[in-house]
Records
---
Amino acid sequence: MPGSYSVTFDYNVPILMRDGITTYADIFRPQVEGAVPALLQRTPYDKSAPASRTGTLDAVRAASHGYAVVIQDVRGRYLSEGEFYTFFNEINDGHDTVEWIASQPWCSGKVGMFGVSYVGATQWLAAKSGAPSLAGIAPGVTASNYQEGWAWQGGAFELGFNLSWGIGSLGAANWGNLSRKLNLDEDDFESLLAAKDGLTEWFQYLPMKDMPQLKDVAPYYYDWLDHPEYDDYWKQVSIEESHADITVPAYNFGGWYDIFLGGTIRNYERMSVMGATDIARSGQRLTLGPWIHGGSPPSVSGEYNFGTRAAGAAIDLMGEILRFYDHVILGEDNGFTDNRPVRVFVMGENVWRYEDDWPLSRAVDTDYYLHSGGKANSLNGDGALSPEQPGDEPPDAYVYNPINPVPTVGGGLCCDPAFMANGAFDQRWVEGRDDVLVYSTPPLSEDTEVTGWVKVTLFASSNAVDTDFTAKLVDVEPSGYARNLTDGIVRARYKNPRQPASLIRPGAINEYEIDLWATSNLFKKGHRIRVEISSSNFPRFDRNMNTGEQIGSDLAFVPALQTVYHTSEYPSRITLPLVPR
């Protein structure tokens, strides 16, 4: 052990939860004498689907390696009984499942977990439960806080994700279970499918709180909308509230173009400092590739090919997870810890690199300031970006009209690529709009690496009582091709994070910090660094109607005149972590 064993398979094994609900699991076990450790995946996406059995970690491969593999439908999904409601049941259910597995005669008493996205959330929530038999987790592309960075970001509602996930991945995909429990008929199913196939129309539905299509199948959507602030509703399930209490090591992995990138990194960062035990703190690992959201990371993100070596298969991500468990569960000295704990793919250079820490201690936060002669509108404007601080420069202005928002073009998206394709795309047609301010450096005289957290500090005013400001970092090739790297948003009423909403005074100049999360990119010699500033990214984020009304209740909207300042008094800028080379 580990070795290469024949595998037995048990289908639809019942697992009883503490409240009497029965869930069902498929179990793959190696034909070996004695008890073995187990690896658990708790999924809302059908335990018997090929993606559940082979996506993140191939069940047969892991079982033949010497682990029992348990794949369970979480409560209320597919074959499992009960009512599915996001996050809240996963703490107790995760605990009960881990301990049930540990008590089986074929299990050694040690259990690890694996999986991505919501399946990553089930791992962290099980770790939050303190299940004593949980020995490690391997969560991919998942969040640390289900308010900020899952349902909301920067005070804006993650409309594209919340709606497409609720209608498609959670609603239509689980129809058999839902229809039995809710007594829904074929007409209801046809209506839901029509909504799934017509998301463009439903993204624009007003008011959002009265969206009809999710009333029966995804009630949590409306609860998320009712809780725009980080209140007790979210704190009950937030991993960030429990980092200091979690005792297990974690193999974290994520993608530069993933919707949950920020949380993936924060889980690693915070656990490395706050984990409750030495093994929890020292046992954290982080791998970040140029990947979009999903279980088996490809080398192509959006329309951009980062090369064969960029794929998860090229670094044998499955094998890395198994080596991680061979080390932390079996105690094998297999060389897993010989490499440094952080592994990043540097885009542009298109190479993998190991690092000692995150953020990189040698990275130097460097400000690049916005400049213009007052006409930075569009790609054809006079916007510029440089390390020199601005002097007495005229501001830039544009009109943000919610009826014609700036469209989403790539980025960290989920969950229906037919309506929102995620990853890297040419941004030039977005940059052709007058409501997008464009600031670019001259062609770089030398290679310039940016690896780490990125933020924009913006000084701006609006004639509205509430509005949004967005920012995007772009790598511009000599040909003009403009590849998006990372982006962010801030809603004016939430310009002070984790503080109650506060409307702004029309015309007043406010300071906004826009969190663009993180990236790793080599801007090659001759390329340009570009920053876009606007007020919408739709349908990724809901449109701010500029009225100051309760989010989700608006039927009316007003255009907003936005003014961005860049002077010695109001030095709007982007802060880039430059890595010496």
---
Amino acid sequence: MKHILKSAVLLSLWVSATNLWAGTNVMVGKSASKDGSTFCTYSADSYYLYGELSFYPATFNAKYMQTDVYGWDTHKYQGKIDEVSETYAVLGNINEHQVCITESTFGGRKELQDTTGVLDYGNLIYITLQRSKTAQEAIQVMSDLVNHYGYCSTGETFSIADPNEIWIMEMIGKGPDIKGAVWVALKVPDDCICAHTNHSRITTFPLNDRENCRYSRDVISFAKEMGYFNGKNKDFNFSEAYDPMSFSARRFCDARVWSIYRKVNPEMEKYISYVLGKSNEQMPLWVKPANKVSLLELKNLMRDHFENSPLAMTEDVGSEPFGAEYRFEPRFWEVDGKTYFNESPIASPKNAFSFVAQMRSWLPNKIGGVLWFGVDDATFTVYVPIYCGTTQVPSCFRTGNGSLLEFSWDAAYWVFNWVSNMAYGKYKYMAPDIRRVQAEFEQKLEDNLDVVEEAAQSLYKKSPDYANRFLTEYSENQAAIMMKQWKELGEFLMVKYADGNIKRERKGRFLDNGWGVPEDIQTPGYSKSFYQRIIEETGDKFKVDEEVK
């Protein structure tokens, strides 16, 4: 336990609606997915965050044992907590009982942060995962922990899921030297999808429906005391009281929610007017998808760039010269004293890691829970299945393997960064090559799943330990194959697109003239629109003299 709380691995992130960090969460109810799984996706987005994955084994602790708690972001000592007699194994953001907890920080009212609390959002997540067998149990554990030890983070939205149900929970502290937090949690209907992205999304909620709604006893009275709300209790709006709407929240946060919802339900397209600030009709907290959602569709939602929408970044000069679907930071920039901004899509260079957590009630927990994990930009990552029953993280994802200041060919984070950074400079050419290899590899992983899990179940009947070892080896082997293939992909891209040219190839084999010389090297240059903009800016400066020609 001490190792967890002292770890320098930032598997969660400190974000707000107005800074450069972000995180995207999508939750899928068991009746909204194609196979009956519950799902929870997450992207951890920060240039200060290294993409890696931790595993913490279950423990048995002596009575009266205490653990030192260190800041999840600051690494500073924050205090002690009492241990429990037994903790559960935790793989990243999912535990051995298929309980998954993720987050996105909304910040909220600054005066409500209590810096004297022992627990911050990161500690709260991972301590809760060590102590919970169900989503509802996790909600109670989180409430008890902050009430007893204090909460020192700003406003946070949590996704809390198990194989049977999913909940969205929002929490914020009460200010300096006031122990505890105010919060509300809502059960998402089984046939719906819910998303949150760094802005509080819970508005009004039922006050007398404990089966579907839980909240702190003072969530409304405290808001009245602070002057955030003065109406009737039934009209209380959590988001409005504790995280008032802003331009950043609407355009950078809710815009990502909109892009998710419009892809699962075309009726949500109409809320583009809200995203653009032309309407104040907010999106629903959750939506029923037009069709049940698959694992692949969820992976691709994490790769969203606002394609085919007014927010797409491929239709202006910022996309030139090679059709990039992103903008590099900073988010805000100035020209002639006026401030402008870049859009904030789900997939971007600042993704440190992302995953799709899959929970299945009909399988033993350690087989049913899968963390489809990938590092770096979700656009170009490969999601590898790592099971709840694993006893060791694949070496390429392991903590201590490289860092933000130390390149390593053994670290998936750096190998994927190498490939994606090549693609940023030649996006429209390289992206199709990468996506083809990505799609083929991920499809093979999904195609093999039935056979792998059938074997795991057979071993599980003999001994759960046999199944655990088998699944650990499987994930390690697939991660190793992926690393080899991605290094070869990077070498292929380097040769094919060296020096701004394109060498011809067929099915990955370069064509030559029979003597080792490339056959017909292509020089594609730039797009017509890019050349047109050069002429608009330079006039006849580069015009060829007809007589010289």
---
Amino acid sequence: MPEINILPKHVAELIAAGEVVERPASVIKELMENSIDAGATSITVEIRRGGITYMRITDNGCGIDRSNIRKAFISHATSKISKADDLDSIFTLGFRGEALASVAAVSRVEIMTRAEDEQIGTHYCIEGSEETLLDDAGCPKGTTIIVRDIFYNTPARMKFLKKDVTEANAVAGVVDRIALSHPEISVRFIRDGKEALVTSGSGDVKNTIFSVFGRDFSQSLMECSYELNGVKVNGFISKPVNARANRTMQFFFLNGRLIKTRTGTAALEQAYKNSIMVGKFPACVLNITLPAGAVDVNVHPAKTEVRFADEKRIFDAVYYCAKFALQEKDTRPQMSFETKAQMKVTSQQMPQVVKGEQIRFTPNEAKQIFTPPAPKTVENVEKKEAFQTFEPVRKPHPIVFNSDNKKQSVVNESDEDILLNRPAKEIKAEPKQEIKQEIIKEEPAPVEIPKEEKQEEKTEPVVTEKEQEQTEANAQYIPEPFRVIGEAFKTYILVEQGDKMLVIDKHAAHERMIFESLKKNVNDAESQLLLMPVTVTLSKEEYNAVIENEDILHKAGYGIEDFGQGMVIVTECPVYLEAGDIPDVVCELAGYLADNKKDLIPEKLDWIYHSTACRAAIKAGDTTTPYELEKFVTQLLSNPDIRYCPHGRPVLIEMSKKDMEKSFGRIQ
């Protein structure tokens, strides 16, 4: 049996620190929670290089007495609890006394603090759990903690840190959630010298949501509040029409603490049942308030998972809170129109000019009056075929030459000739010969081409083996003659081909066709530039995943740029997508990339192609013209390899004539 050794103190502290300090974001979380427990009404967070080299947290809380400054950095030293019974009634965010000791064990910490009853503050420095300075300092009431060079003494952990941008986005996510959980506290976040977030601290949750996530997200929410069986739920939930592609924008807080609760998620989504599209999820910022004795927060090291004494009470409170808000405040979508129609300004509509008086126009009036009218366009003629239109172009009258080599216009040309671009009757062969002779005389002397170049001109274009195989394959798969019977339920195409009938699921088939096209053009994705770029609001985890995988998304045909503050701008998308589907697709892709960071790139691309094809494919219930049905079936039957959609469902079912006749008793 190996010998049992007692670990030295500094080794034991490093092991304990691993439970609390994983990255700069976890340091920011612990220190901000300490500031909140200290009664601060204003917190400023500043980081550099993602927090790896520099973090500073400043608050105006109660501060730390000089007599207690050394105790604060001892493991399991806390002012939140004093006996075991206190664990049953925890109202503070921190209570284990591990944060400062764990941070000091793996970094260089400098703290300046002053309590309210002290005249002079305290300046204290500790590096790797070793005290280096304790002195007087002039500072305001509150605490300022500076953390430098995290994991400087543990190189093994340093290797697991991500890029500076990734770590900074993780810190931003922590700051966002704490700001949402405590709208009564003014939070300021400075990232590499630039102010990234400021909340007012007014206590208005809607105002805080606007500061954190922007206008679009805040306007998609509606307020809710409900109390049942001693459980109070209040906050904001999204309107059904603004549902999202995943659950990343669902934030639940318990007594001001961010938690992950399956009970709350299930209750919220149950309230939206039959009011939201399948595959969509509501967003929320909900704070649950209940007695401390009804919940156990000492379950998870990160304190994000809790255990309720009565899960049903929580479920009912969240469910009815969301349900009543949907019934009372969810109105029908309104369509807004311009109040003033663009119209011509006549002399009667112009304001009367009084001598010596200056005419003043509002910006809208000036735009209407002085904007030149748009050029008239030729109306499209009647469609001859679906997707194809043409406009008659009137060409100038052709010029011919008479026998005296004088120009003469064709004057007897009919409108029908011009419309159909028919040759003029007056043009004869003799003038053409004369024109040819005239042109030949003016041509310069021909330049001799070397023999080698002439031989190169005669050579036929080189066809690679791959192109030849592809050409032979395309020529080989010629579909048998078929007849499109029609469409059932605007979903299934009925086709007669030989002695069998085909039933085609148009969505599944179209989805597979788009998927194969995207995979075929993996190195040259067909994309389109958007006339109006689309802004998409994401959670910080999704935002970071999108920024890290810009190259993968670019290969899939998406042009995405960083817009800051958890938002991205989509400037380019695959040609198959419509502009209205872009926000949902980007949210769905971002959620997948955030949850599957270790997947291989081909697997990520396949999933992106799946999602894009599913969104872009024609939907069941969409109206399809006979011309479109004909072209669609031709393209599908020309590729017999298309048998299943990307999700594995069959794209068509065959029914033979013999089986049908057996079903009707025509044959035995």
---
Amino acid sequence: MGVVIEEAQISHRPSIASVFHTARSLFRRVDPALYVLWAAAWTLTSARSFYGYMLKQTGGEWSAPLDDVFIHFDYARATALGHPFEWTVGNGYSSGNTSLTYPFVLAVGWRAGFRDCSLMIWAAIVAATCVFGFLLAVRGLFLESDRDDWGHVSSYLLPPMFLGVGAFVWSLWSGMEVAFFMATWAIALLAWQRLERVDGNHRAHASAWWLGLAGVLLVTTRPEAALTVAVFGVAAALAHARFGLARAMGVLVRAGLPGALALAVQSVTNKVFTGEWSANGALVKLALNNPYLSEKEKVEDYIFNVKYAALRNLDYHFASARGEHMADFGPADGSNVFAHVWTSLSREAWWAGVVPLVLAMLPLAFARTRRVAIVLWAELVLWIGVVAFNGQVRWQNERYVMPAVGIMLVLAALGVSVALRTRAERHGCGARTKLWAVRAALVVLSLVFAYDHQIPKMRDQKWFFGRASRNIRDQHLALGKYLAETKPRRVLVGDAGAILYASDRPGLDLIGLGGYGKLPFARASVHGLGASLELIERMPESERPDLLAIFPTWWGVLQTWFSSDLVARFPVEGNVICGGYEQNVYRADWHLLGTGDRLRTMPRGDTEIRAVIDVGDLVSEKENGYAFDRPANGFVDMHILPDPANPALDMFDGGRRINVGMSESFLAKGLLPSKAAHLVVRTAPERDTRVRVQISGAYAGDLDLARTGGWVEAILAIPADRVTESMHIQLVNDGPGDFVDFHAWLTQ
């Protein structure tokens, strides 16, 4: 009897297979909700760790780790007030915010009541929503079908790996548009995947239009994404090429045209409202727009930026040479071989940095993930290739590179998933099983190794996030609040973000991102301070800034020449992000501006000024077709010297320095033909030199300049038979000294 009962009990025990089947069924039922909770938990935990440390550093006040965050806030407030695309209300259209969409998203929060620094709370909500949505959207890359159990299980690696690199997470929570951009990229990814799956011609074209609209969102969030859209479009077209060339071309056009039109509309709008096709940010930050660099120097700058963008991540952000967290394995001596090897490997930071890269390359090695990996790797590489044109790629914790890092982390998680799959080996031999075991061990150890190196890096980035936010609070926001109390008419700033946002006063951005009407301050900032001052001369006196809020080490003689008093100082202790230890407020004094506009020496017999060019003034130069030999020539210079008409007074003028053997030229228009004229050139000779004058390509005479301690207005007579209504004037410096041209007039 006992034996029968025992056998009955054994027969009712569940088998391992049935237990596994029950567990799999249960997992499939709870998986959708469980992954949502998992992604939400990682998102909120990551956000809380960074924002919590920021609030700890600032004593509970919201701030941001970058001044550029507040540039977004400036545009968002103006948008909420009914002035979209304006940096400050009243300055007019500005292309200074390269992300067109993000300020509109922030403006929703401003209208909802997130004012002042609490707008950063809204930015944090937006970032968390975007990261959470990204983790949900990208999960599909891991799933081969709804019943792909390993794909569902391994996708749980995505949140910790995506949020596992400190510098990348820093950018996600910084308040910049990085998190929002990653969400727009995920939308484009979903649109591309949908397009790849459809068969019917009508459905394919409809899906291609959806991808095109996602492309519009991408390029208006970050214009560097133009090539990202192109990769999605080309990949989709190739997938549909099996249905014929017409189908493939239709998909390509529909996927790419909307984004291309969006960029074209943006460029045309810039041209209409600012006079420049490019955005202000591109004018200021791209070496391509530097008038003084040679083509070789521009190429060298680009190559340096590419190397920096890659190596800064590999040997710094992805790596830590400490490996200190493996101390749990015991002392790193001969008695513990594992700890000794681990510590030895950890001393080489570059080695640890390569591990995430290798994991991200694994999807290329497997047929089931190779296609998507090629697409994502193409986007990653092209992104770095595009942002390397931007000289600012080396600053702000490398935030410009971080979208590429985000894509790489997705690839790394996908690489771990596909490398640990066993389905392909189920019907293979034992050798294949052993190969999988070795591969799995290497992948797991690499993952743990990379994680070990990110522990101290993540801690450092949290500290950096909090300290940088405190720096911005202590200097920029404090200065802005001071200005809000003193209520100046307009403030000149060299940092266009937090000062103007906190003060809510009209501003003038000397770097040029903010813009002011059609005056080309962005281009002028690249040419030099003198070019910017020449533009301030063009502003009505009532519109000129009455205060300067600048770093005294940034702008040379600006505060010495054009301020009357130091009003306030705003130092920052323990600075890790601000442009200088001290940012000061000066009372502006512009009384010297415009003093150099008038000709002091009218040639005998002449009564009229027929043409004039103010050299160094970009507006005047453009009107007169001015050009100078490049490179390393034409640097903007400026002087304050005694006024020739009244030595008791000072006179200011800006001009360009023409090196020996180089020249400048301009077009003089409006002269009376066949009537004798004079060319008058204002300079301040530092050494004796001779300037050869050519009119319409023919020699017309020399200007012999002797070194003086003041202004000189040199005169060259032009015979009547050489005078036409329009004349091309070229000034060639034959040396031996430099020639600085400040002004030129044609008189009759």
